[in-house]
Every structure is written in C-alpha cells, then in structure tokens.
# Entry
Amino acid sequence: MREPGAGEAYDAARRAFELGAAVRAMREDRGWTQTRLAQAAGMTQSALARFEAGGTVPTLALLERIAQAFEARLVVRFDEGHSAA
# Structure
C-alpha cells in the first residue's frame, strides 16, 4: 500500500467486489440464474459473472438496468463522516 495510488486502487476493487456481491445475493435470493438476470438486464452471462466476481466496475447505466430487471430502485448516496479507506 506504499505505492502511489495503491490505496485508491484497493478501494475501487473493494467497491466493485461489494457491488457484485450485492447483485449476486439479490439474484440468488430470487432463485435466478446468471443467464436469466443477464438477459433481463441486456447483458451477457459472462459479463454478469465478471461483475458479480468483482472483476469489473459497473456504470450507473448498467446498475440501473439491473435494478429494473429486479423491479427494484437503484439508490446512490453520499455518506458523510465515513472515509473511503
């Protein structure tokens, strides 16, 4: 973590993993396969698998499509008082 930018890269990877894990949990709670969610969200199953594993950082547009597929509302907020680290 002593390298310049290492902390920021770690935080980005952590957020990507947490978002993917949240989507995976919602999908599994509904008993959906990756293929079903991917089709409903207009993406490929392999892209969804990478996202759920934390391998990609999704755009807001993709998160909105996933929320619509789940018939859920996407909520994005800033939380004061919590550091990103």
The mean pLDDT is 91.
